[in-house]
Amino acid sequence: xxxxxxxxxxxxxxxxxxxxYINYTTVTGYFMQDEVSTDPxxxxxxxxxxxxxxxxxxxxxxxxxxxxxxQWQRFYNxxxxxxxxxxCNVEYKVFFFGRHGDGYHNDAQxxxxxxxxxxxxxxxxxxxxxxxxxxxxxxxxxxxxxTAHNFWQQLIVDQRIHTxxxxxxxxxxxxxxxxxxxFEGLELPRNSASFKPMVKELFREGISIHTCDNRRSxxxxxxxxxxxxxxxxxxxxxxxxNGITAETTDAQNMRSKKxxxxxxxxxxxxxxxxxxxxxxxxxxxxxxxxxxxxxxRTFSLNTGAVxxxxxxxxxxxxxxxxxxxxxxxxxxxxxxxxxxLANCVxxxxxxxxxxxxxxxxxxxxxxxxxxxxxx
Length: 375
Prior knowledge:
The protein contains 8 helices and 13 strands. By secondary structure, it is an alpha/beta fold.
């Protein structure tokens, strides 16, 4: 799969080529979150065993030992069976998508209100008391990640759950911290994969003009967690965020498809038997986009929440078209706005602008948006 950027003038032009294409679907019937009867607003993952449904699986009646296994052990065996019985171009994996814990940007949005946040406060680095540029976790966010840590440890001890074979995370600070608190120091089962995540650019939040979506440098990430893997091709500075243009839903969904393809390719380069459970620490908007790509029902996550999804990936040979989606320009106020519950109104003396309100640490990327992917 190839990523490239094109000038707006060439939007709409498409290069057609025969190539491998992965078609993703969600396999339902295994998790409560798949069911329309499960309300995302009241569902608590750590009270519901990650949502794993208590049921029997095909073939268990022939295995006398199944009655001695926990539900999570039986489910892992079911995923193994699905892979063993599938055609060579089809594979099944379970992804645990975890949203980062509460960050200072979440608290600021709640404090100022969404209209004022979107049209002014989110475009600056912070206020007199806190910073939300590439926001860090608040104390609540740390506690939410610790809850996830404790729940994983409980399942390891009580249900002998198969822990992730691979770990991936967004490059934004709140996700790096969440992944670290969640998984570092777990007493992992024998022969489990160690926690050494790969930082992937495209698992980031939907790219907006908000400074909380502007990641810090590659050097910063490396210094924060020197032992972690930063994917090949990761740029020193953030070349996707420019404070001027924002991804559309279609553009983000194409990015989400691209990063799923990258992960499946990465896992395919490892031992297939050891890569059935995968952890991804990301963001509400990005996880929502990924669920859309997977054909999963809409399921919003509170900060710190986790949703597992059984994914069927079928590799096909098809005509692949390079598609582009232009990003949008968002006007915003230059001073704190006058607001109502429904919208944002700039002060009469401060007309809306479409230029960044922050001092850029580097020159804005001249290639940010539109981004084009093979699809």
